[in-house]
Amino acid sequence: MAIGTITTMAADGAPLARRLRPFTTTIFATMSELATATGSVNLGQGFPDTDGPDELREVAVAAIRHGANQYPPSAGVPELRHAVAAHQDTWYGMELDPDSEVLVTVGATEATAACVLALCEPGDEVVMFEPTYDSYAACCAMAGAVPRLVRLHPPDWEFDPDELVSAVGPRTKLILLNSPHNPTGKVFGPDELAQIAALCTAHDLLAVTDEVYEHLVFDGTHLPLATLPQMRERTLTVSSGGKTFSFTGWKVGWVCGPAPLVAAVRAVKQFLTYTSPAPFQLAVAAGLGFAPDALGAPAAELVAKRDLLCEGLAALGHTVYRPAATYFATTDITTVAPGLSAEEYCRALPGRCGVVAIPSSVFYDPADPGAGRTLVRWAFCKREPVLVDALARLASW
Ligand code: PMP
Ligand code: GLN
Fold it and tell me: Which residue in 194, 222, 235, 290 is a FRET match for 201, CA 20 to 30 A apart?
């Protein structure tokens, strides 16, 4: 029997492989490959086109030169666990024990996956807001959990509180909240967080919060859900150094929360990756020690890029939903590409204009084909001349 046949049989017979079949390739990888193949300006996958501080690069290089090259502790190097605890205290007044309440992961991606795997039994339900970051449905599929979606509505990406309440049922285990939110750039406000917290406490739910864009906020203030009354003991807060320091390839993330929950996640992490790369942990630890102004510097630079891209797209006829945070803007393409879906538009865009963007429809439930049908996500974490070039190219649509 050919190896290909065995592989196919194994995949067909394995429930996990079957559940993951809809997730074989991420939209970000697909669109980045398309950008490379067509020589397009890549405003798709969210990564900056300039690296973060030299100072942090030097810490990683020195760490490699000076022997941080063997397995670090599974929970993360003490320097980073202490730096995460200090960061949460300085920024949000959250006191954490660096030994039992902080776990270092391979990016926020592993952190969220390990949280869902650790906390959910097959059949448990996870409430999350739609559009939804792509890895969350895959995390649920891996755990055998079921996503329950609550829709965010443009222009302000508000949700209907009744819809949130009715998303909670007897099998609901946790709420997976992403704020600041990818792809919409929404920052959940204090009233919205209070509604989510009230639901968690009323139904004894856990919360996992993905806060990777915590330092890329332009309008409003980011507030971790864990800081609300009675939420600390039921919330796992996830973040990572990729966005904050513009080193998305370093893949250093973390989970913080009450010791028993962190211990459960740690048990999963041990057998997914065991530990995370030592030199990058040390570099991110140094970064978290930056003064608050320095940590906020990338946001100050990004806001001008957001405005450049949003104003440019509006001038080209897009309906623009200007983000309050992150490095993604959303537009509705109905007026610039009448009759086309976002997916059709984004497939045609590299060939016609030499630009790549992400159809936001991929962040919606595939069982609801009309959802987000004409929404497109554009990354603006690029150098200004690159954004100007992209806009000039888009003018030829
Ligand atoms: N969560 C969200 C909302 C993201 O946008 C991303 C992408 N950067 C991640 C998690 C993944 O973060 P990391 O690269 O640290 O795994
Ligand atoms: N978070 C990035 C984005 O939204 C992509 C990360 C990835 O490729 N997994 O574009």
Answer: 222
Q: Coil, strand, or helix at residue 175?
A: strand
Amino acid present at 186? K
| pLDDT 10s digits, 314-361 | 999 999 999 999 999 999 999 999 999 999 999 999 999 999 999 999
Q: Residue 351: which residues within 8 A CB-CB, separation 6 or more?
A: 38
Q: For a pocket test of ligand 2, which of 134, 251, 363, 377 has the largest count of ligand atoms closer than 8 A to its C-beta? A: 134
Q: Kindly report the protein residue whose alpha carbon is nearest to atom 9 of ligand 2.
A: 28
Instruction: Tell which wins on pLDDT, 25 or 144.
Output: 144
CB 148 within 8 Å of CB 127: yes
DSSP designation for 234 = G
Encoded tokens for 97: 């024990």
Amino acid 3: pLDDT: 47
CA distance 264 to 150: 27
Is cis: bond before 154, omega within 30 of 0? Answer: no
- Chain-centroid distance of CA 189 in Å reads 18
Give me ligand 2 centre to Cα 292, in Å: 26
Please give the structure tokens belonging to residue 151: 């829709």
CB within 6 Å of ligand 2 — which residues?
Answer: 26, 28, 45-46, 182
Give Cβ neighbours of residue 251 (< 8 Å, ≥ 6 apart). 106, 107, 109, 110, 240, 242, 276, 277, 280
Please write the tens of the pLDDT for every residue from 164-223: 999 999 999 999 999 999 999 999 999 999 999 999 999 999 999 999 999 999 999 999
Ligand nearest to the backbone CA of 377: 2
117 alpha carbon to ligand 1 midpoint, in Å?
17
Which residue's alpha carbon is nearest to atom 4 within ligand 2? 46
Q: What's the CA-to-centroid distance between 315 and ligand 1, angstroms?
A: 30
Q: How far apart are CA 75 and CA 103, in angstroms?
A: 5
User: Which ranges of the chain would DSSP assign to H, the alpha helix?
Assistant: 3-13, 15-20, 27-38, 54-65, 78-92, 107-119, 134-143, 161-167, 190-203, 241-244, 259-272, 278-288, 292-315, 342-353, 384-394
Q: How much distance in Å is there from the Cα of 134 to the middle of ligand 1?
A: 10
**Which of 26, 109, 284 for mutating ligand 1's site (highest number of atoms within 8 Å of CB)?**
109
Among all bound ligands, the one having the nearest atom to the CA of 326 is 1
- What's the pTM? 0.95
